[in-house]
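With this grant's support, the team has encoded backbone shapes as discrete tokens. A representative record is reproduced below.
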Amino acid sequence: MISAIFDHPVTRLIVVPLLTASYVATSHADEPTFLQRGDIWHYGVQASGGRGVTRYATIEATPAGVDWTVKVTCGTHEARTGKVLSRHVGQGTSERGRGTGLGGTYVVEGVRQNFIITLRGPELDVPAQFTDSRCASGIGQLSTGD
């Protein structure tokens, strides 16, 4: 009897898809979704700058429609004390395409610079490369702010 109901064309074309859509919509209704307007995606990396100095780079990326707005901060600090020796801040945009990375362009002190972060599925330790030599490149940490 039940199999006859599910074999009916109206049931297969209308009822089953509606029940499935309703289940999917309610099964994840309480879970927050990341990458909504206003969310911030953080990335930070450090690398040796030689002679007790560490180079660093941070990116704050916020979704803004198709593009992202980014704030990139680079510089150096003393490895022992953490005292900041230099700091350069740039603003720009980024795009998250179908590939495995997040790349972008920013302007710091009137000079256009670029970066790319290679995402590796759910991993949070991921590599980044900056064209600005004042920025650290290498394996850094990704955080969605949660």
Notes: The CA atoms of residues 37 and 63 lie 6 Å apart. The longest helix spans residues 9-27. The radius of gyration is 23 Å. Residues 8-34 have pLDDT under 50 and may be disordered.
